[in-house]
Amino acid sequence: MKRLKRFVFLYVLIAVSLFRANAKIPVSFGLKMEANVHEFWLYDLDCFESRKGVAPSLGFFLKTGLNDALAIQTELSLFCRNTGVKICGRDDYFRQRGLCIPVYLVRNEYIDNSIWYFGIGPYVQIGFDAHMKEAAEAPYGNVSVNRLDCGIGAILGCEFHSGIQFNAALQLGIREQLQIPGKEPAAMNKTVMVGIGYRF
Fold this sequence. Notes:
200 residues; mainly beta; 8-stranded antiparallel barrel; two-stranded antiparallel ribbon; 1 helix; 10% helix; elongated
């Protein structure tokens, strides 16, 4: 936890330093609050169902302009997950808390007093904890949950002159999240996020 606090502090410090040090480079930063809807997308997993679950996220973003139309937006988000699953008819849940760091290449469109933007890019996710209630008793044997993930994400949003912005994002994981002895299934993360932010 101390390392996480130091990392967040360093992230904010770098953002403020860049913003003040070079006014020629358009750099902005702000806060985001989101509701994330998570589920697994599955392949070759018999008797396993995934149900969408809603949980909160909170984070920072740093947006560095490349020119009037393009920018790099890096985010640091603390998230919770609470996803329902069913294993061979038995109800279970997947719960996780962690840190997600997406980096988007963003295209800006200026319309009246607002900026509409669309971005795409990779993300890395680190779970502080992750568990399933009935995993040890699953018919496959001892199911372990992978705390690390990476994948591709996309974001769409609108920012107003006041600095308030609304956005929606999609993240698709490419790393298997469930490790089952003797099987090589695909159970990857799929997350949709809807949120509100404020640019300072």
